Amino acid sequence: MWGDIMLESDSQINENCYQIDIQQWGVPRVGTVYVVKGEKIFLVDSGTSQTTEKVLKTLEEFKINPKTINTMIITHEHYDHGAGAAVLLKKMPTTMVLASEKTAEILRDPSMFEETSKKYYGEAAGLVSPYPPVKNVEVIEEGDSIDLGGEITLEVVALPGHTPGSIGLFESKTKTFFAGDAVCNYNQQYEFYMPPSFPELFDYETYLKSLDKILSYDLKYLCMGHFGTQKQPKAKQVVKKAAETAKDWKKIISDVYRKTKSEEQVYNKLLEKYGDNEYVKNFPELIRKSVLGQLIKGYIISLKL
Ligand SMILES: [Zn+2]
Predict the structure, then answer these.
(1) Contact residues for 259 (Cβ-Cβ < 8 A; gap 6+)
(2) Residue 228: how many CB atoms within 10 A of its CB?
(3) CATH architecture of the domain formed by 11-244
(4) Does pTM surpass 0.90?
């Protein structure tokens, strides 16, 4: 009805939901912010503090005045979801911010978190945007149902694993599930999957349980942080493939790291298996090394290798 929403960067997903490509790190189809429109208009996530202009520009293209945005819900702690909030609030000063308790803690005081992120990004620390604090954050939790009017509601679903504070939001009228980063990093164009195992917040076993929880929903659209929306039946296939990939990575990382205690050897082994994928090839080496290195580290910490 709205064309191939899966490959469009900015698109209307269905009657009530829109997808915005934040062009994270200046790269298309890496990061997403979503809009849900009932009688009230909500943003799901804020992007980084450096992608807010893109969000505002796309809202304009969708003919949505930022000042009419009632609420922003931040799906989890990471800077590419929450760091844009304080910047956007300058353009929408009456907008409320909602998040899980753990995410709210980081939004109110991101300083420690910002330092930890930069440490793990290593040479690519410049990719981490500043994370200005948000003073007023209201806490939401599993089971809360948020009424946007016009028969549109968002049910809060706890999805820990990617981070402890991760939540999803399920809109039952349109059957749209906003999953934050709880599924994986997925690129449709190159059919590439990466577990979202950033240190130190990732927990492997909890993450797999959250994938099962997502599968239990009667969803039609799956909206992911990285990147974009998938429609059924592909949506649930992506969730299943995310679980398979996570298990494959666990095996490779455990085997190689136990033998060698070398993160570099693990990196080389993963590149041997996935390095031919154009998506991996196309990433600048600095980003590829930093991101893959972090995902490996997240496994090592979580699995106590
Ligand atoms: Zn994340």
Answers:
(1) none
(2) 25
(3) 4-Layer Sandwich (3.60)
(4) yes
